[in-house]
Design a protein that fits this description.
With 850 residues, the chain is α+β, with helices and mostly antiparallel strands. The chain folds into six domains: 2-39 and 186-213, Phenylalanyl-tRNA Synthetase, Chain B, domain 1; 47-181, Beta Barrel (OB fold (Dihydrolipoamide Acetyltransferase, E2P)), CATH 2.40.50; 230-430, 3-Layer(bba) Sandwich (Phenylalanyl-tRNA Synthetase, Chain B, domain 3), CATH 3.50.40; 438-505, Phenylalanyl-tRNA Synthetase, Chain B, domain 1; 521-623 and 630-743, Bira Bifunctional Protein, Domain 2 (BirA Bifunctional Protein, domain 2), CATH 3.30.930; 761-848, Ferrodoxin-fold anticodon-binding domain (Alpha-Beta Plaits), CATH 3.30.70.380. It has 22 helices and 44 strands. A hairpin with a 2-residue loop joins strand 20 and strand 21.
């Protein structure tokens, strides 16, 4: 909401000498954020009020050009101030009187007798533009008639500033025009929260400033209404409200015989421009002006185009309406409409219809000022994509008590400046329902705000916002004013007291954190996994937890796969991804694809997050109360209806895992690296990992392993299927891992590591086994047979060839043997090796290769 200071001063008796910074600080102190303060650039030199005394149309040019004779007052005329300019004008058009100047102008929105703003030669306008006397279009132009953007008081360049016509009270030709057009008038752009609709008006902001500075306030809507004869109370125009829940009050006032397209007064045009609204015509400008002033949106109907009474009702499905923007709109039913006998003539509170639009031929107008249900207006404005200044106010709730005052104010302005007369009657249907009284303990502000407030302060502040306050013992009964429907609870009243007393007076006290034991074991485990993967060179990412059927299709997940049972969102952010993810891989692979498209070739990424798995036999969600805490049984139903949300870790290796450089060639990540990262994760969690070959989408059927803790599967790792790689455009042999962290049991407190000071014995052994025997199983047998003295078993070679029988292969292992309390002898180390080989031979028929 943009508010010129001069307009605020009309209703708030602000002290003289206040700087824009002081006013901005006060707005902030009472709880409003200032988006910006517009300080007009000053003009340097004479800027005076002039009267157009003659206009000569120069028709020999392609565009409209006028040579104007403008009275500028004694001492300002060409003959008085520049004899050489007058001499230069000889022979260039009609003779110019002594107190006047001849000026070339291309605007056409003024006539003889209009008062305008004239920059005399030598004046420097904002932007460093200096006005001079020069020959142009065959005439001497001795000054400039100014538009609002040229003097820095707005953005309107459609025409020049017209202060009025003929004689205006308090304005004389030759007066300094700066104070009249607002070149010294700062404009405050105030950010208004959604629950403070009353502040979207000069009325509301002036009240707030008056409270903040402790000065008098005059309510622009607080005057006496125009007296209306009892017989003509409802005769302005017949109105009927068929839906009181959508429209609580409807006021109609008529104006007859007015020129509704007459130019608006300069003050109205200037203030509209300062507020960011373009001036159009008298009828439109006045309704916008009153809306900004009082916060009550209005709409003007051409009375001659109305057919039958105005009726407020709900739309039926399929009804159509052409709105003022020329768009034909089909209604789905339930929208709040303004209608007459011809059908819909407006979307209530949003935009009027084209059939009753004010035209240049209109002379009689019916003004509407109504109070509509905020949710109805908000819903229609969004559904029809029609945000407007009116809907912005209606959806935040307008003051129903000022509808008549707003309509009367607008009617009086149209009649004054358009030459018409206000109709004798006034239609007023519906009424104003008082807001509920709120009971609050006097100690509540101190309890919630954390600082003491005297009872007198609480009562005074609540009365300043317009509430009716009654004290009963240690409580106050507060009836909010009609413009504050947001005051519904004691907490709302406390906010008003704290706000007006200034939040700065509330002491800052840091809360004392409760003592605790730090991270839980589960939290520490998640951090340890992330830190270990990052230390291994992987980059952590976060992807959106939403997927679509196309994402699962790209991974080759079959229609009968359990992962196709998805949790659908009621209101998805992306219509193409309406489900919560059953796996981390779609989102993580999407990050890879996006980075590849931006030129990144080598990616090693991981993500830790939750997946969402629907529960079998889950109960339906129940509606919870909003006025009290749900029962334990209701919360239990909600909890049972929620999907399972296990936390998983996923890794994707695309391109080189080890980069090439001066040190040598790079190495791409492969399925073995993915499995090794699974081992690392399990080791961080305190468990050894077993790998079993399986076929599992979206992995390559021959290069995929099921990751197990004991015999319990916790994830899968391997190379992605070639078809998946092709569909997603990934590098060849891209590999991945997904592991369920919640399925890994909590490990017991790990024992302190022991470091032996005695030297190890290194032994190698090569075993021949059938091809079907997995290297991991053979290593497990060696470790079990070697006992406590066998410190480690590592596969370092695999051989197949002529020296090995068909259907067999040779696996070579490096064994490390060490004792914690002594140096082993060669025979002791050999016994350990032989025991390990014997266990391998017993389990898998392994033979030592000669």
């Amino acid at each position: 909401m943009r508010a010129p200071l001069s307009w605020l001063r009309e209703y708030a008796a602000l002290p003289e000498g206040l700087t824009p910074e002081q006013i901005s600080d006060m707005f902030v102190s009472i709880g409003f954020e200032i988006e910006d303060v517009y300080l007009p650039e000053p003009t340097i030199g004479p800027l005076v009020v002039g009267r157009v005394s003659a206009i000569e149309e120069l028709t020999e040019f392609k565009k409209p050009i006028r040579f104007c004779v403008v009275e500028v007052g004694p001492g300002n005329g060409a003959a008085d101030t520049a004899d050489e300019a007058a001499d230069g004008a000889a022979g260039a058009g009609p003779a110019i009187p002594a107190d006047s100047r001849g000026i070339i102008c291309g605007a056409t929105n003024f006539v003889v007798g209009d008062l305008v703003v004239v920059a005399l030669p030598g004046t420097e306008l904002p932007g460093g533009f200096t006005i001079g006397s020069r020959m142009t279009y065959g005439r001497l132009s001795d000054g400039m008639i100014c538009a609002s953007d040229e003097v820095g008081v707005g953005t309107d360049h459609d025409g020049i500033i017209v202060l009025g016509h003929g004689e205006l009270p308090g304005i004389s030709v030759g007066d300094d025009a700066r104070s009249l057009i607002g070149t010294d008038d700062p404009v405050f752009d105030v950010s208004v929260e959604t629950d403070r609709g009353y502040a979207l008006s000069i009325r509301g902001l002036a009240r707030e400033l008056a409270i903040g500075f402790g000065v008098d306030y005059t309510d622009p809507a607080g005057g006496e209404l125009r007296a209306v004869d009892a017989e003509s109370v409802d005769t302005a125009y017949p109105v009927r409200i068929d839906d009181p829940s959508g429209c609580s009050r409807f006021v109609a006032v008529g104006v007859t015989g007015a020129d509704l397209w007459a130019p608006s007064p300069a003050l109205i045009r200037r203030r509209l421009d300062a507020a960011g609204i373009r001036a159009i015509s008298l009828a439109v400008d006045v309704t916008n002006y009153v809306m900004l002033e009082l916060g009550q949106p209005l709409h003007a109907y051409d009375r001659a185009k109305l057919s039958g009474p105005i009726v407020v009702r709900r739309a039926e499905a399929g009804e159509t309406l052409r709105t003022l923007d020329g768009v034909d709109r089909t209604l789905i039913g339930g929208e709040l409409l303004i209608t007459d006998d011809s059908g819909p003539i407006g979307l209530a509170g949003v935009m009027g219809g084209e059939t009753t639009e004010i035209s240049t031929a209109s002379r009689d107008v019916v003004l509407e000022a109504a109070a509509f249900n905020p949710p109805d207006i908000s819903r229609v404005a969004r559904r029809q994509h029609l945000p407007s200044e009116a809907s912005k106010r209606f959806e935040r709730a307008v003051d129903p008590a000022i509808a008549a005052a707003a309509a009367e104010r607008a009617a009086a302005l149209i009649a004054e400046y358009g030459g018409g007369s206000v109709s004798a009657g006034r239609t007023d249907v519906g009424g104003v329902t008082p807001l509920p009284t709120v009971r609050m303990p006097l100690s509540e502000p101190e309890r919630l705000a954390g600082r003491p407030y005297d009872a007198e302060v609480v009562v005074r502040r609540l009365e300043q916002v317009g509430a009716t306050v009654r004290v009963e013992a240690d409580e106050v009964l507060v009836t909010p004013p009609s413009w504050r429907p947001d005051l519904q609870r004691p907490a709302d009243l406390v906010e008003e007291v704290a706000r007006l007393e200034s939040y700065d007076t509330i002491p800052s006290v840091l809360p004392v954190p409760p003592s605790g034991s730090g991270f839980t074991r589960r939290q520490q485990r998640l951090r340890s996994v992330a830190e270990d993967l990052a230390a291994a060179g992987l980059t952590e990412t976060l992807s959106f937890p939403f997927v679509g059927a196309a994402d699962l299709d790209a991974l080759g997940i079959g229609a009968d796969d359990v992962r196709r049972r998805l949790v659908r969102l009621a209101n998805p952010l992306d219509a193409g991804r309406p489900f919560l993810r059953p796996s981390l891989l779609p989102g993580l692979l999407g990050v890879v694809v996006r980075n590849l498209s931006r030129g990144v070739r080598d990616l090693s990424l991981f993500e830790i997050g939750q997946v969402f798995l629907p529960r079998f036999g889950a109960p339906s969600l129940v509606d919870l109360p909003v006025d009290h805490r749900p029962t334990d049984a209701q919360l239990a139903v909600i909890d049972a209806a929620l999907p399972d949300q296990p936390r998983r870790v996923a890794v994707v290796l695309a391109g080189d895992l080890e980069r090439a450089g001066w040190w040598g060639a790079g190495r791409p990540g492969d399925w073995a690296d993915a499995i090794e990262f699974g081992r690392r994760i399990a080791a961080v969690c305190g468990h050894p990992l077993r790998v079993v070959p399986v076929a599992f989408d979206p992995f390559h059927p021959g290069r995929c392993g099921e990751l197990r803790i004991g015999d319990w599967p916790v994830g899968h790792a391997g190379e992605l299927h070639p078809a998946v790689i092709e569909r997603l455009g990934l590098p060849e042999r891209t590999s991945a891992l997904e592991l369920n962290l919640d399925a890994i049991p909590e490990a017991a407190e790990p024992p302190a590591p022991t470091v032996s000071s005695f030297p190890p014995v290194h032994l190698d052994v090569a075993l021949t086994v059938p091809d079907r025997v997995r290297a991991a199983d053979l290593a497990e047998a060696l470790a079990a047979g070697g006992g406590e003295l066998l410190e480690s078993v590592r596969l370092f070679d695999l051989y197949t060839g002529n020296q090995v029988a068909a259907g067999h292969r040779s696996l070579a292992f490096a064994l490390t043997v060490r004792a914690a309390d002594r140096t082993l002898t060669g025979s002791e180390a050999t016994e350990v090796r032989d025991a390990a080989v014997a266990a391998a031979a017993e389990r898998y028929g392994a033979q030592v290769r000669g």
